[in-house]
Amino acid sequence: MNFNEMQNKVKEILSEKRYEHTMRVVDTAIMLAERYGANVEKAKIAALLHDICKPMDEVLMKRYVIKYNLDLKLLDYPTEVLHGPVASVYIEKEFGVVDEEIKQAIAVHTFGKSNMTLLAKIIFIADYIEPGRKHPHLQEVTEVAEYDLDEAVRLSAKYTLLYLIENDERIYPSLLKCYNYYNIKNYRVGFKEKNKEKILSGEKIITIRNKSEAHFKKGDLLEAVVYEDNTKDIFATLEVDLVKPVTRDTLTERYAKYYGVTLEELINKLSTRYPNDDELYVIMFHVKDR
Ligand code: DGI
Ligand code: FE
Ligand code: FE
Predict the structure, then answer these.
(1) 110 CA → ligand 1 middle, Å
(2) Topology of domain 187-289, per CATH?
(3) Where are the domains of the chain?
């Protein structure tokens, strides 16, 4: 089935309002996919089909959960929670979509999960920020989604949690896991693209940062990402071995050697990067996971 055929079928199944919401999610998902370098065709299909089971009868949804071995805990939740997981099975049967990444993105579009794929984040956010939405966080999350998709995921998980608690609703655990996972930005450390391979090979084992990025201690785990990489995918988990305060006067040749520069060059480099910080911190680490 091509996209147009799918679109016609979606239009027959959904109410006019739901169909219009769906098409705005498609447009938003295309925009985000282009922005973050995701597969635009997949984003279009996932967005088009994300709410396809919204009108399905609750009893039928529950039958799907049992018949297709979905998480049985879903049976304790309302159709708001069920319609995504059920759709991930339904679209294979009714639309011939077998792509696991699309199915997964649709399954979690309502409540998210930890460590989502780029596509899943795009559908989660597109659904939350399509311009017809009426919630009070539309503008804030739309703005954040332009430059930091993970932070947008954190915010929409947060606001959904707050809304659900306010309304005495039952929280599906995946939503909480999503929030916790994306709420760890203190322990994210950015590196320049050119340092990625050196870190992975074990050649680079120190970094020098200012106070804002030195609230770590031995044994802490840091998630290393590349600054230039818009998706901010974690390329390695680093375990901190040592955090040591240094000033320009106490920096030594040894540290400069790790950077592959002379001491003088290192001091100049740090003065440029941190012109207002006298005290800096040497963070030594090793790669724990890649
Ligand atoms: O299907 P849409 O309306 O486009 O949007 P959606 O799939 O994000 O569903 C939003 C609804 O789902 C909203 O009313 C909040 C609700 N929801 C999200 N996570 C949970 C939840 N409801 C419960 N009870 N528990 C959850 O964890
Ligand atoms: Fe939905
Ligand atoms: Fe939706």
Answers:
(1) 5
(2) 2.30.130
(3) 3-183, 187-289
